[in-house]
Amino acid sequence: MSADVVVIDYGIGNLFSVRRAFEYCGATVLVSSDAREISAARRLVLPGVGAFADGMRGLTDRCLDRVIQAYADSGRPLLGICLGMQMLASFSEEFGEHRGLDILPGRVVPVPALNIHGEPLKVPHVGWADLHAPTSEAVWRDTILAGIQAGDAVYLTHSFEVKPDRANHLLACCDYGGRDVTAAISDGNVYGVQFHPEKSGPVGLKIIDNFIKLDKLP
Amino acid sequence: MSGVRLIARLDIKGVNLIKGIHLEGLRVIGDPREFAQAYYRQGVDEIVYMDAVASLYGRNSLHEIVRHTSHDVFVPLTVGGGVRSVDDVRELLRSGADKVAINTAAIKNPQLIRDVARVFGSQCMVLSIEAKRQADGSWEAYIDNGREKTGLDVIEWARKGVALGAGEIMVTSVDQEGTGKGFDVELVRAVSAASSVPVIASGGMGKTEHLIEVVTRGQADAVAVAGILHYKRSSLPDIRAAAIAAGIEVRRVS
Predict the structure, then answer these.
(1) Active site residues of B
(2) Does B208 fall in a domain?
(3) Domain ranges in chain A?
């Protein structure tokens, strides 16, 4: 019996918490760096913290970049978390210009350094922030944010954010210093969240539960 | 706006949750795992475990407590006390910690800050500073849980720590710690002004007014709460409600 979720291990970040949160939601979890196991996953999670270039190197050194790109085309659910989300984009500006997986077209750019009044903001942006939809929360229906209310808070810790090329790929934002920063992106079966659902209390667990049940959502 | 974080700080000795005054005179309170779980259920934003004697005895016995806690507590978990090397950090992260707080080892070897930030990211590297007020109004950094002076000026050390890659600073006033008489607001304000990264105020919270003061006047980005919670003099929902009533942005917990 194959696992419900495969979490990609590419030598970076804290996989324990991610694994534990999925298990808490009732999923069987396989943590793997094996291309065949990843390709065969029923649902795939790309976690990660740290620097963009290190993360991409971790993937390419294991020849997992093309494996993940092919997986995204398969139509099965894929979730990138934090750095894992940023690597779904096309390019990052973190310490130079770096190529991403280019699964969700967009750029990774620094979070705002100033609030709308021109005062400096603390970077990294660390803490809990309320989710809201770019236009209407109705777009959250049938996504990993199904049942989440605008104003439900999630935990983030980041210095960079994804700016998707296409407005319809932006799923959720949160406010930092009066400006919108990207909290979640999606394109069909592919999701990326800047926040840590595994560290966001009951709201985060609900989002993980939704991801596990994506194929069963009405 | 990103809210002020309410962090439960649990100081640990061996397997016990303890509480001291000025980081000394430690008194056993109970099983830290039960307290952490209760705080999670009450909507705490983060949990910090500090091994109170680890840096003295050269060990960190928190792994089992961390492992147990991360099993069913789904908010960020920071662990400090006796963290000496990149390998120590790796092992704590494997046990379920999300961040480490480093004081003594960072002062003895500042490059450790850079190494931890490079390997695990700045978000993982919390610089813990124990500060004692000096006669001239400045603050000196202490190590070994407030026992040993270092000669380092807290503000300069905070600036250097950020430059080396610390992603947050937790500043504990040794003078105020355990007294319940309020934070050293001037200290927090000075560190926050000198720091581009978030600052966690620690030491001295005895009532909710202290939190409001250290956020509004002290510019704290997060507040560590210990004795007032452990001794059940107040609760997280009450503290949160008081912060909201005072116009402070905090996470809304349903």
Answers:
(1) 11, 130
(2) yes
(3) 5-216
Q: Nearest CA to CA, how far is B169 from chain A (Å)? A: 12
Across the range B247-254, mean pLDDT stands at: 90
User: Cα separations (Å) of B105 from A54, B82, B223?
Assistant: 26, 8, 24
What's the pLDDT at B151? Answer: 96
CATH number of the structural domain spanning residue B57:
3.20.20.70
Residue B29 belongs to domain spanning = 5-245
**B2:A24 CB<8 A:** no
A72 CA: distance to closest CA in chain B (Å): 27
**Longest distance between any two alpha carbons in chain A, whole Å:** 56
Q: Is A196 a catalytic residue?
A: yes
Domain count, chain B: 1
Q: What is the mean pLDDT of residues B224-246?
A: 96
pLDDT, mean of residues B7-25 = 89
pLDDT in tens, A170-188: 999 999 999 999 999 999 9
Record: fold of A5-216: Rossmann fold (3.40.50)
B1: pLDDT strictly greater than 50: no
Give the nearest partner residue to A199 out of B74, B95, B196, using CB atoms: B74
Closest-CA distance, A85 to chain B, in angstroms, reads 16
Give the Cα separation of B41 and A152 in Å (integer): 16
User: Would you state the structure tokens that stand for residue B58, as one six-digit string?
Assistant: 């050269």
Of A21, A51, A176, Cβ closest to residue B74: A21
pLDDT exceeds cutoff 50 at A198: yes
What's the pLDDT at A6? 98
Beta strands in chain B (DSSP E): 5-13, 16-21, 24-30, 46-51, 77-80, 99-102, 125-133, 139-143, 148-153, 168-173, 199-202, 222-225
A198 noted as active-site residue? yes
In a domain, B254, yes or no: no
Mean pLDDT over the full length of chain A: 94
A152: CB partners within 8 A, 6+ apart: A130, A131, A203, B254
Cα dihedral sign, B49-B50-B53-B56 = positive
Whether pTM > 0.90 for this model: the answer is: yes
**At a CB cut-off of 8 Å and minimum separation 6, what does A213 contact?**
none
